[in-house]
Amino acid sequence: MTTAGIPSEGFNTVGQIVGTNPVRLHSKQDGMAVTIELLSAHISGAPVVDQDGAYIGFISEVDILKALAAGQDLTALTAEQLMVHNPIAVHRSTPIAEAIKIMADKHLLNLPVEEDGTVTYSVTRHDLLRASIGLAVAIED
Q: How far apart are CA 29 and CA 64, in angstroms?
């Protein structure tokens, strides 16, 4: 039996599911604006892009908490200063099982999805769990 919106063979790749984290932060945003955006969207982190939209880093709540614990003023920091460099990303063709392994091995809550050098969205553990049991909403090509 098939369900509308679910591929008959099930979900196999990251690109088949709709991610619930569309937020992208900009490298020159100040740290307080980044923090408010994450809190407002109820997400634990987001990819950082440069002025051309290229994926250059990732900021998590932990990165912000570390800056605060070090006594830094978030309004004086940029996203580029807060972000983790050498970020991890997957492509739309990445198998869901591989994405789960990457998230588990690296202790990630969000995994940016790149397409032609641009992050289009991020998948969360929640998204991958939904896809694994067949409840993810499919992306129509």
A: 13
Q: What is the pTM of this model?
A: 0.81
The DSSP 8-state label assigned to residue 71 in this structure reads T
Q: Which domains does the chain have, with CATH numbers?
A: 14-132 (3.10.580.10)
Residue pair 118/127 in contact (Cβ under 8 Å)? The answer is no
* Positions of the chain with pLDDT lower than 50, given as ranges: 1-4, 141
Phi, psi of 86 (to 5 degrees): 55, 55
Helix (H) or strand (E) holding 117: none
Between the alpha carbon of residue 133 and those of residues 3, 91, 130, the distances in Å are 13, 21, 5
What is the 8-class DSSP label of residue 74?
Answer: G
User: Strand pairing partners for 118?
Assistant: 54, 115
Q: Name the DSSP letter for residue 83.
A: S
Report pLDDT digits (tens) over 64-76: 999 999 999 999 9
- Sequence-ordered list of residues with C-beta below 8 angstroms from that of 16, at least 6 positions apart, any chain: 7, 131, 136, 138, 139
Q: Pairing state of beta strands 90-91 and 118-124?
A: unpaired
